[in-house]
Design brief:
The protein is built from one helix and eleven strands, in the order ββββββαβββββ. By secondary structure, it is mostly beta strands. The chain has a single domain, classed as Lipid/polyisoprenoid-binding, YceI-like (Lipocalin, Beta Barrel), CATH 2.40.128.110.
């Protein structure tokens, strides 16, 4: 289900993607590592191609209960002004009231309300708030593995995606095309590639 399958460049045919399993049970508390994670999106432009973007500044935490997944919890806060699509003019437009209206709504938030698990597949339902509008969404995630990095951190990985209709969050800007259709699709794919670091409880 994940949209961002990592690939490895080699001099021969591409090798099958490998995963790691450092811990047998990923239950615990985690913090998202923004420098090794991506919160992205894509939308069709002029009916012919996709424009992709992401947010550079965000933070998040997760409590994972593998025995009782419904007790798990995820919270994410995104700085809307950190949106980037690789085009300065377009990024500036996205920050205006036509889209994210960052002057009035500087953050985008997601707070889970329910978590379900089927093996390595997770479904996280929660409240997504953009432009002061809160709507429920469900994001499907693949658990991609766990590892200990060179600095002693235990990491877990997830890849996920969902599709929303942006107009439900008052992201209404559009323009008609002379050939029919609209400039920006209402459907937007949200894409997540997450690396989270286990948090060690402080000793009493």
């Amino acid at each position: 289900m994940g949209l961002f399958n990592r690939s490895t460049t080699t001099t021969s045919a591409a090798a099958p993607e490998q995963s790691t399993s450092f811990v047998s049970d990923i239950a615990g508390d985690y913090a998202i590592d923004p420098s090794h994670s991506r919160l992205g999106f894509s939308a069709r432009h002029a009916m012919v191609t996709k424009v992709r973007g992401s947010f550079d500044e965000f933070e998040g935490s997760a409590h994972i209960d593998t025995a009782t997944p419904g007790n798990s919890k995820v919270d994410v806060t995104i700085q809307a002004a950190s949106v980037t699509t690789g085009n300065e003019q377009r990024d500036g437009h996205l920050k205006t009231p036509d889209f994210f209206d960052i002057a009035n709504y500087p953050t985008i938030t997601f707070t889970s309300t329910d978590v379900a698990r089927d093996g390595s597949d997770w479904a996280i339902t929660g409240d997504l708030t953009i432009n002061g509008v809160t709507k429920p969404v469900t994001i499907d995630f693949d658990e991609t593995g766990s590892a200990k990095d060179p600095y002693g951190n235990t990491r877990i990985g997830f890849e996920g995606s969902t599709t929303i209709n942006r107009t439900e969050w008052n992201l209404n800007f559009n323009a008609a095309l002379e050939t029919g259709g609209v400039l920006v699709s209402e459907k937007v794919a949200l894409e997540f590639d997450i690396s989270a670091i286990a948090q060690v409880a402080a000793q009493a």
